[in-house]
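Journal club prep, notes for RB
We'll compare a predicted complex against what the paper describes. Inputs for the copper (II) ion case:
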Amino acid sequence: MQNLIDATFRRPMRAAKLTLICLLSCLAMTACAEGDAALEVTDAYVRQPPPGMKMTAGFATLRNPGSEKVVLTGASGEGFGSVSIHRTEVVDGVARMRSVSQLEIGPGESVALEPGGLHLMLMGAKGAVAAEETISITLMLSDGSEQVIDMPVRAPR
Ligand SMILES: [Cu+2]
């Protein structure tokens, strides 16, 4: 009988406790915000520029796991004067980079930022962009939210 009473009373208590712990850890950590992130980011990296070069490019695959489209409207990075969205296009056999004002990613869709195509253009590096470093880039979305992504620096292969 005592066991039954214990079981009956403890279970809801435990559930309440777990909810509280979860809530507190969500408030305390950014892990919760990451879980709610608009974009899933994989294969993110920044190409290590040659010594003295103040600009480079960042690449990643951005996936929208949500049910609404996500529109990337810009980006910024602490160690850089500016970060913008670019697309490399070959016109008359010459590769040119064009600025892209916004990038739409539909529900369930992925967009690859990759060499020779879309990329984040990082300009005005305030210091050396060394391999093994990780650069934090803030993505700005059209709903006014921001998402910070970590991009490790990789030497060109
Ligand atoms: Cu570019």
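Talking point for the session: The CA atoms of residues 86 and 100 lie 5 Å apart.
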